[in-house]
Structures are given as C-alpha cells and as structure tokens.
Amino acid sequence: MKMIFVDVSKCTGCRSCEINCAVAHSKSKTLFGALSEEPKSGRRLYVEAARDSKIPVLCRHCDEAPCINSCVSGCLYKDADSLVRRHKERCIGCWSCIMACPFGVISQDKARHIAVKCDRCHKLDTPACVSGCPTRALFMMEADDFAHEKRLKIAVSETTPV
Amino acid sequence: MSYLIVGGSVAGISAAKAIRRKDPSAEIKIISEENKPYCRPMIPLLLSGERDGSEILWPEDIEKTAWVQVIHDRATLIDHESKSLKLAGGGALGYRKILIATGAKPRKLDVKGSDTKGVFTFRTIEDVIKIREMAANAKKAVVIGGGFTGIKAAEALTKKGIKTTVIEIMPHILHPRLDSVGAGIVASALAAEGIELVLNETVHEIASVNGHAAGVITTSSKAFRADFVVVAVGTSPNMELAEKSGISMGKGIIVNDNLATNLPDVYSAGDAVQFRDIVTGQDSVSALWSNAAEMGRIAGSNMAGENLKYGGLLSVKNATEIAGISMISAGEASGTGHEVYSHTGPGYYRKLVFDRDVLIGAIFMGDLSGAGIYVNLINNHAPLEGLKSLAIENKIDYAALLSSHVAEAIK
Amino acid sequence: MVRSEDKATLAALEQGKKLGIRTVWDRYEAQLPQCGFGETGLCCRNCMQGPCRIDPFGQGAREGVCGANADTMVARGLARAVAGGAASHGAHAKHLAHTLLKSAQGKAKDYPIKDEAKLRSVAARVGIDTAGRKKEDIAAELASLALAEFSEKDGPLEWITSTLTKGRIETALKLGVVPVGIDSTVSELMHRTTYGVDADPVNLLLGSVKGALSDYAGCHLATDLADILFGTPSPAFTKSNLGVLREDAVNVALHGHNPLLSDMIAQVSGDKDLIDIAVAAGAKGGLNIVGVCCTGNEVMMRHKIPLATSSVSQEAAILTGALDAMVVDYQCIMPSLAGVAECFHTKLITTMPIAKIQGAQQAIEFSEENARDSAREIIMSAIDAFKKRDKAKVNIPDISSEALVGFSTEAIVSALSLLNKEDPLKPLIDNIVNGNISGICLFAGCNTVKVPQDRNYIEMVKILLRNNVLVLATGCASGAFARHGFMTPAAAEKYAGDGLKAVLTAIGKAAGLGGPLPPVLHMGSCVDNSRPVDVATAVANKLGVDIDQLPVVASAPEPVTEKAVAIGTWAVALGIPTHLGIIPPVLGSRIVTEVLTKTAKDLVGGFFIVEPDPEKAAAALLETINDRRRGLGLSA
C-alpha cells in the first residue's frame, strides 16, 4: 500500500498541507465555506521547524499503534487498509492516545471534545496534504519502491568515480 | 492444546489478540467472572448517565473477530504438573500456556463501619448499578479517597445532582499523579462544580443509622453527613489464584522481563503484576489501563513464541479530563528533590522533571500538544543531551528528534 | 475546467494547444491549489521579519511577528491594493496632463486639442475663467491645475469637489476621507501600511476609501483630458472578437491603456503612404488596427476600431497566427506575450520606459514630442513582420459580433434630448419612476481566469435585462458584452424586458436607428467609469437626492486587478451597492468582511455584495434596486 513520504529538503514550511488538511476535513470542503463553519475544522498534520529544516510531521498509521493500544473506549482501530482510524462516537476525550503517540500527531478537538488524528483521507484518491503540497515535498509511494529508489541512489553514488 | 487467559479485561484481551496475530490456528480461551468485556475507564460515564451499558462494552466481539472462546467462570487453581486449570463451576481445562490477568480489586478501608450497608466501591458495572439505585433517592454522598477513581466518582455523582464531599488523606488530591500546583488548579475547578474537598484528613469511622451508612467521621473528629459512602482508596492485585497455585508474589505477582512467572508456561500481565518502575527503579503495582494493555500484548506475544521484553512500567502514566481540565502526567510528577521546570499560562500548566539530563517526569494540563513525545522520552529513560534545553523550552516535537538525523542524511 | 464561453477564444486556444503553447489557463492550473493564506488575505511580506502568515483556522499563529492580527493584515493588504490601483489610474491621467500642457505650449504638435467644447466645459467646471480666452491658454491652465492634483494641495481634489453631489462630499468630509492629492494619497497609503504604522483595521479601511477617491479623481481626470485631446465619443457601429482580424491585411493590435499611444496609431493608420506600403508588401487589405483591453475601448469609442479580445484572452489574439504586431503601453499586459509572440512571426512592441518586457521583439521609446513619427515607425515594423507571416499557422476564428458603442455621458444626454430637448434627463427619470426602467446597473471590471471567461457576465445580464434594468458597461465588461452580441439593437429585442425595450426603442427610433438602442451601453474604458458617475450625479442632483438613494448598482463579476479593487471601493464610497463575482482576499478578517459588506451601508450608503454564483448575484442586485426604489417611494 502506498505511504506518504516526506522529502524534507523540499519543504518550504508554507503550511499549505495543513490548510488543505483542515479544508478536506470540513463540511463544505472549500476554504471559504470551512471558515464560516462552527466549530471549525482543524489540521491533522504539523509542520515543525527544526534547526535548519522544516519538517512536516504526519501520522504513520503504525502497525503496532501505541494509540490503539492505549485507547480505553474502543474508539481507535485498524481498518481493512491498515489505516488507524476512529469510531468518533466512541471517543470519550480521555486523551490517552495523545499520551501514547510518540510522534505527537494526535490532538484535542476542544470544541467537539474528541481526539483528532490523520485518517489518510481514506475517501480521496490522494490525501489532501499530498495534493496540496506546492513543491512535492509530500508524495505517495509504495514503501518497497521507495526503498528501491534509495538503494539505486546509493548504488550509483558508491560506484561513480570521484 | 489451548492458550488459556484468566481474566477478560484489557490485559487478557490484548494478550488474546496478540496470540491470535502470531498463531492463526491456535485455540484461545478466556475465563472471566464478569459478563461481557467492557472498558473499565468508562465506568464514571456509566454512573453519570453519559453512556449506557451497551456503549461501554468492548467494541469488538472478540469471540467473532479473534475466534476466542469466552468462558463465564472463576478459575480456582493452576495445576502446573498436569498443566490444567481448575474451574469453580467444576471441570478443568488443559493449557499449552496460561496467562493470569486477574486484575485488581478495590482495597477495603480498614475502619469501623466499612462493611455497613450503603458503602460502595467504584470499579465494576455491578458497583455502578448499586450506586445508581442508591443515588436515585439520595441527596448527599461522601467519597473517601481523592485519587482519580474518587474524584471521577464525585464528578459523576454531582452530575446526578448529589452533593458530594471528597475526603483525602494527603495535602492535595490526585497524589502522586499531579503535584500540588496541578492539584490546586483541579481543586478550584471542582469547587466551582460544587464538590467539597477535605484534605489532610484520615477517616476514623463510617457512622451508621439503623444499619445504614449515614456519614463519615475523621480522626480529627470532623463529621460529614452522607446518604451513602463510596470508598476509593486504591486497588490491590487479585492474587488468590497465584497464591493457591504456588506462584511467587510480592506486592503483586512477580514476573521476569518476558512477563513469565516462576511456573513454566505461566505468564502474568496487568493490574495483578508487580514490575520495575522505570523512574524509581522499584518494583511497583500499577492500576493503569495503558500499562495493562502493553503488558498483555507482550505476554501474549511471548506465549505464542516471541521473545519480547517489557522494559518497565510507569506507575504514574495517565491521561484524562477532570472538571473540564484535560491532563496528562507521567513518571515523577511531584518533582521534589529534582530539577524542575514549569510554565503556567492562561489555561495551561506544563512541568518537566529531570534527573541530570534524563527526563523523569512530566505534567501537562490544558494544552496537551505533543505530550506523547515527552512520555516516550520518560519511557526511554535515556540522557537527552542537547535535546534537554529544547525540552525545557517546550520545543521538542518529532521534527526536533529527527532533525539531527535528517541533517546528516541531507548532507 | 471550461476555459471560456467565447468560442473564438476556444478556437484560438485549440490552435495554441497544437503548437504546445502554454497560456494563462495552463499557468493557472499549475498554480492550483492556490495558497489558502493568500486567498484569505492572511499573509504579509511588508518587512523582513516575515514572511508572516496567520492561520485562518486559529490553530497556528494568530498574529504576525510584529503583532498585527488578522484584521490588520487583511486591511493593510486591501489598502495596498487600492494604492496600486490609484497609482495606475493616476499615472494614466498624469501622462495625459503632461501631454495637454505640452500641447498647449506648442511642444506636442501631434496632440492638438480636438474637442474645444469639452475643454471649455471642463475648465468652467473646475473654476477656470474661459470667457474670451484662446484654447491654448485655457488648456495650459487646465493642465497645470490637473498636474497640481497629484501632490498635496491645501484643499480637496478639484476632480472630486467639482464632479460629485454635495451629499457625497459631505459624507466623505465627515469620515475624514477627502483626498488632497492623488499621488500623495498613494504615498500616504504606502506609509500607513508599512511596518509599524497604521494597525487599526477600520482606520485602514477609511484610508482605503480615501485612496479609492483619489483613484476616482484620477479616472475622471483621465476621461476629461482624453476627451479634450482625442474627442468625446459618440455612438457608432463597429465589431468585436477575433474574427475582426484579416488574413489579407497587416494586423496591429493595440493593447494597454493610454490613448496617447493607441489614438496616435489609429490616426496614422489612415496615412495613405503607409497603406500603400502595406499593400505593396502583399497585404491587399492594407492596415487593420484592432484593440485589446482598455486602450482598445478608447479607440473603439472614438474611431470605431474593432475590439479583438479582452484581458484574460489577450494571448489568443497572437495564437491566431495572424497578428503582425501587438503594441503595448502599460497595465494588464501579460509578460507571457513575448514568449507567445516568439512562436509566431508576431512582434511584441513595448513603448514605455517604465513598462519593459523581457523577450519583447522590439522596444520603442514613445514620446509625446515625436508621437506621430513613433507611431509610423511602429506601423512600419508591423508591415515588416507581416512579410514573415507563416500562412500555415494562420487560423482566424470566423467569429465576430457587431456592436453599437460610443456612449459617453454627452452622447447619452444627447440621445435623451431627442425625446426632450429642454430637459433631457426628464425622460430618463420619468421612465425610472414609472418602472419602465427598474434601475441601472453598471458592469465594470476585468475577465478572470478563475471562472469560464464571460460566463458570469452573460448569466447576470440576461436576468437583469429581463427585469428592465438599464445596463451600462466599461472596460473588459464591455468587451465581454460586445463579443457576445449584447451591444446590438437585436439584443434589446431578444433580452430586454418590455418596459426597458420600450424606452430603448423610443430613443433608438428618435435617433434614426430604425430599432431600439442596444440594451448594454458601452461607456468606455475603465477610467471612463467616471462617465456613469456623471450620469448618476446629474440624476441625483435633479431629483434632489444623493447617489446612495438612487436605484443604481454596480457589478464586477470577474474582478482581477488592483485597479478593480480601487474602483469597486470608490463605487461603494459613492453610495453604489457593488457586486463582486470573485471572493476578494478579505475573508481572513471578520471585521473587514463585516465592514465591507454591512457596516459600509451605514457609513457611505454603498456596500459590497460578494457572490460567486451569477444567478444569486443578479437576484441580490435586483433586490437592492427594489430596496432603493421603495426608499424613494417608487413601486418595486
């Protein structure tokens, strides 16, 4: 299954991915419509500044998801595509998942009083963050293909005469 | 031959699912005294009426999704020579591996009157049903114990219109999960909800009238009237089965890093177990859902042939919301005698506790963003070196953790 | 996405696609999705502590580095846009003023004063004594007065106090927004919006109104001076759309804004010797001058020069393969034209030292002193290019529409006087009162890439005409209507409601048209938006009310430029409810959005109606017209 990869060298920190994520999870699915909704939608990924780089931090939909393991109400689960998703009505706002996530990518929706996390835009062909990235810093690829490309790069660099 | 799991709460179910993932064809049986498995942390919502009985049940029917057989019975003895588990309802079950996930029970208060009618514990669905019946005609209640259980009981009862007083032995509530500052913030909010908090008081006696609890008297002779009393003074591990079966015990069932007991093929996980606390280094018992889930997963995987090590537990590691204040705390939350950095602002309180440059404790209130990163740093119990200053400035996010690696990779 | 409702544009784009040429539509698609911070007005680059952005969802940063909040950021951005617009129209007017002065001083022989009557009436209006004086003297004084409008004067701008109702001037005085200098107001806006000056959103908005009124003054000045130098337009039939290009002629497109350039080229295109050279080069049809954008409108209104296309489809003119030269001065000229021209034999010729384009095939220094010679040089250059035309690439869409244009204020009054010589406004007012004309709508503005070209115009005008609204148009709005056949008598028969049709027919018959006037009256270029204001002012004064009580509305269904922002703002400030068909970058601020769409009504009587859906927009305008009618005690 395709995963979202990040080419950090291409991230300009413009946060278009965050805005697109928030809009994609609004009711109206347009920026202007989303701004007039109450309560407002929110982003599920976070662009952080780290020394000289700008790094988008996303949910990995972990195989052994610490958030699922910590969920006390049976809200978080793995769906048929191996995505970590929520049964929203089961969330009791206990925030155990926030405590468990080592990447810090679960947040509180204070208005709705439930935990909020990336759902990999499972209803769209391409996740909103990826389609909204103006520099293709975020891109989708099969993990095997990504590893293959990396191996090729290293092979070339190791065999190219200096 | 079957995998047997004694106890059907989160440790047992996590173990069952872990076994099923590793061994698709195994026979797995859970022996449980309670009816259907449910999410114990949701009990306060059942009491307050915010959720009903069907809504707090375990979300999946593991009998169907994991092909686990749930047997409604009580286990009485593990005969490790014949490798069989004796059941109270008669009969025995043979086992390949067995997990003791018997959990814990509410501790009894050792004072006069603690057996009177109208004195309840607050742990199971049965407890809630009894309290609800009582509360229907009551106006006032006293909750003994100002930990999470007691405070959540008080909040739920308040939502049902019962005027509630909480009596706590320590100088502040929610010890040791919050420090005095954090507890103070919560206490103010609880007071605003109409909950009376009585601190630094020890209960001397539960007074009764006509054989029914009518109030509580402290050692300093203060009296608090009540129509009923809820006792929430902690839990103690259910160790009868272990004791009878010859399993080594201390404060809880003793297990090694693989969560195996001294008896071959017998494991234990969850509230019944004692294990090394990552921060204090001492063996402790933890009554925390997340620890039980983690231990169950590791024990189950090991029962099915893995060799996973449990790295230790944090006896303080909790996330919840009380009086509208969301909070996460882990490790050494009070911080006395250690290097402490704290920030208070409008609607939030953040505190980090260090032992040199190892993060050993943290409290987050109001603003929980990124809390999991810090909790994981506490779990790792490793020197932070250059990251310590970032942590203090609350600038640790996953990007910061990555960046040193990334900077190298980009070069 | 459907790119255009104009089949000629689509045909030209097909041609371009075959040759692999990227146009504005391709570049727009490559920009998608556009940045949400920019769309909401929540980004600022005014200082080097930025660039800053404010999260419209309230989760990220709530202020810029300096502490500017969303309201300040949005209001500042709007103010800078108005400044950009006012600077543009001001520069256009200033250029004309310099030329008039040079003309009066005998230093610009190629720019004689064509309309002396207009000169005298404008001079009289601004308090210049005209009795017994030579036109050169009057012109010199008028030009000096005009030039003085640009820096800070001791009092309000003449082109405001002499053109608006007393009520409008009082309203502006009360709000403290009467400008005393066109350029000085632009400079003030740049100062107010730079790092650490004006941070109060409402104060900034009032500053924008002041800037917009400077823009208005610049527009009116430009119209006046262009009429004086080149003649006041009067109605004439012409054509529009790409079909006006001719395979057998040297095609020269005039693009940009100032008639100082375009009118001169229009004039020299009649020089017999040049036509002969063209014919000798193989162009049997001689010289064919066509227009694009506002300058196209200027020469269309005065010389019946056909309008080839409008702003968003400007590249399409070159894609026909038949354009030998595109001559540009300033504003609305896409830098991409040089590259598109490169794919053909076409020469993009720039003419202004402040408006150069990399890759333009030729840059001529056009000066007022040598205007005629420069214009002839340009024509020669076009004939030269014609010789290199690749016949295989020529594909002129056989699509064009007739249009009756040239409705200056004077022309409208003149037409009305056919019905009532002594009191020409009376038939207009009477028909508004009796409901034959329910109200007036001015369509102005641009053509945008963000919606199918012209669609908003077409959908809206049909609804308004059906409901007896008299429609005026300027700029690329006029272009849209002209290209789709709305400026013909036949269009009145087809689209006008009965009441409106009756009035248009009465005037048309009186004018000897043999049919009704067109239902959409072309009043000129974008600076000529001052013309409908004159009509509104005259009607208001006659009725003894202010403009904000008249059933007059405006619509910019496809706004693009900063000039559009400025014009829209002054339309609102003049008490005219103004519709925008594209959402402006203000939604990031609740205060700014509220002021523009609601509070403005209490302050100035006008307000913005932001509505991308053309049907809903037309309905909102009709409702507003009815409200105004009710306010005057008229039947709705």
What does this structure look like?
The complex is a heterotrimer of chains A (162), B (411) and C (636). Chain A has 162 residues and is an alpha+beta fold. Chain A is 28% helix and 20% strand. In chain A, the strands form 4 sheets. Chain A has a two-stranded antiparallel ribbon. Helices cover 26% and strands 29% of the residues of chain B. The C terminus of chain B is likely disordered. Chains A and B meet through strand 2, strand 3, helix 3 and helix 4 of A and helix 8, strand 22, strand 23, helix 9 and helix 11 of B.
Give descriptors for this structure.
heterotrimer, B: alpha/beta, five-stranded parallel sheet, disordered C terminus, C: 636 residues, alpha/beta, 26 helices, 50% helix, globular
Helix content of chain B: 25-40%
Which class of secondary structure composition applies to the elements of chain C? Answer: alpha/beta
Strand content of chain B: 25-35%
**Mean pLDDT level of chain B:** 92
Shape annotation of chain B: globular
Classify the secondary structure makeup of chain B into a structural class.
alpha/beta
Straight-line N-to-C gap of chain C: 39 Å
Which strand order do you get reading across the main beta sheet of chain C? 6-5-4-7-8-9
Question: What topology does this entry show?
Answer:
The complex is a heterotrimer of chains A (162), B (411) and C (636).
Chain A: E1 2-6, H1 16-24, H2 31-35, E2 46-50, E3 53-57, H3 66-70, E4 76-78, E5 84-86, H4 96-100, E6 107-109, E7 114-116, H5 128-132, E8 138-142, H6 143-159
Antiparallel strand pairs in A: 1-8, 2-3, 4-5, 6-7
Chain B: E1 3-6, H1 10-22, E2 28-32, H2 43-48, H3 62-65, E3 68-72, E4 75-79, E5 84-87, E6 92-94, E7 97-100, E8 104-106, E9 119-120, H4 125-135, E10 140-144, H5 148-159, E11 163-167, H6 180-192, E12 196-198, E13 203-209, E14 212-218, E15 223-225, E16 228-231, E17 235-237, H7 240-244, E18 253-254, E19 266-268, E20 273-276, E21 283-285, H8 289-303, E22 317-322, E23 325-331, E24 339-345, E25 348-355, E26 358-365, H9 371-380, H10 387-392, H11 398-410
Parallel strand pairs in B: 1-2, 1-7, 2-3, 7-19, 9-16, 10-11, 10-16, 11-12, 18-20
Antiparallel strand pairs in B: 4-5, 5-6, 8-17, 13-14, 14-15, 20-21, 22-23, 23-26, 24-25, 25-26
Helix pairs in contact in B: 1-8
Chain C: H1 7-18, H2 24-31, H3 36-39, E1 43-44, E2 52-53, H4 70-104, H5 116-125, H6 135-148, H7 158-161, H8 166-175, H9 182-192, H10 201-230, E3 236-240, E4 250-255, H11 259-268, H12 272-280, E5 287-292, H13 293-303, E6 307-309, H14 314-319, E7 325-328, H15 336-342, E8 347-350, E9 362-363, H16 371-386, E10 401-405, H17 409-417, H18 425-433, E11 439-443, H19 455-466, E12 469-474, H20 475-483, H21 489-495, H22 498-510, E13 520-524, H23 530-543, E14 552-556, H24 562-573, E15 578-580, H25 590-604, E16 608-610, H26 614-631
Parallel strand pairs in C: 4-5, 4-7, 5-6, 7-8, 8-9, 11-12, 11-14, 12-13, 14-15, 15-16
Antiparallel strand pairs in C: 1-2, 3-10
Helix pairs in contact in C: 4-6, 4-9, 4-10, 4-24, 5-6, 5-10, 9-10, 10-24, 11-13, 11-16, 19-26
